[in-house]
Amino acid sequence: MNRPKEEMVMWAMILGNLFFGYLLATMLSWANANSFMSGLIKGGTFGLLLALGMDFQFWSMTTWFSNMTAMIVDIIVNTVMMAVAGGAVGYMLGRGGTTETA
């Protein structure tokens, strides 16, 4: 079901990650995440719900997961990745509201 490593299409991987990053940044901006912790929590929640929705659909329609443990691990990993990315985005969004004076 997966491409061999040497046949991966890197431009598509990069483009997909940029779109996911834009989606996360837009969602966190709308949710007023303006600190690392706020972004971490909101990004993690978004990642958890996204992973649950997608993985249960994959479980029902494909043979991608060999067992339920693999699906649970995928959900946990995706949640942690989105939480960390959300924390970084929240931190960066929070930096925009501060001004420095000399």
Number of helical stretches of at least 4 residues: 3
Structural class: mainly alpha
Estimate the mean pLDDT confidence. 91
What share of residues are in beta strands? under 5%
Largest sheet: none
Number of strands: 0
Q: What general outline do the C-alpha atoms trace? A: globular
**Structural Rg:** 17 Å
Instruction: Spell the H/E element sequence.
Output: HHH
Determine the fraction of residues in helical runs and give it as a percent range: over 70%
The low-confidence parts are: none
Measured distance between first and last alpha carbons: 58 Å
Please give the structural blueprint.
Blueprint: H1 10-30, H2 36-61, H3 68-95
Helix pairs in contact: 1-3, 2-3
Descriptive overview:
It contains three helices and no strands. By secondary structure, it is mainly alpha-helical. It has a domain of 65 residues. Helix 1 crosses helix 3 and helix 2 packs antiparallel against helix 3. The relative contact order is 0.18. The model has no long low-confidence stretch (mean pLDDT 91).
In short:
The protein is mainly alpha-helical and 102 residues long. Helices cover 74% and strands 0% of the residues.
Tags for this model:
102 residues, single chain, 74% helix, mainly alpha, globular, 3 helices
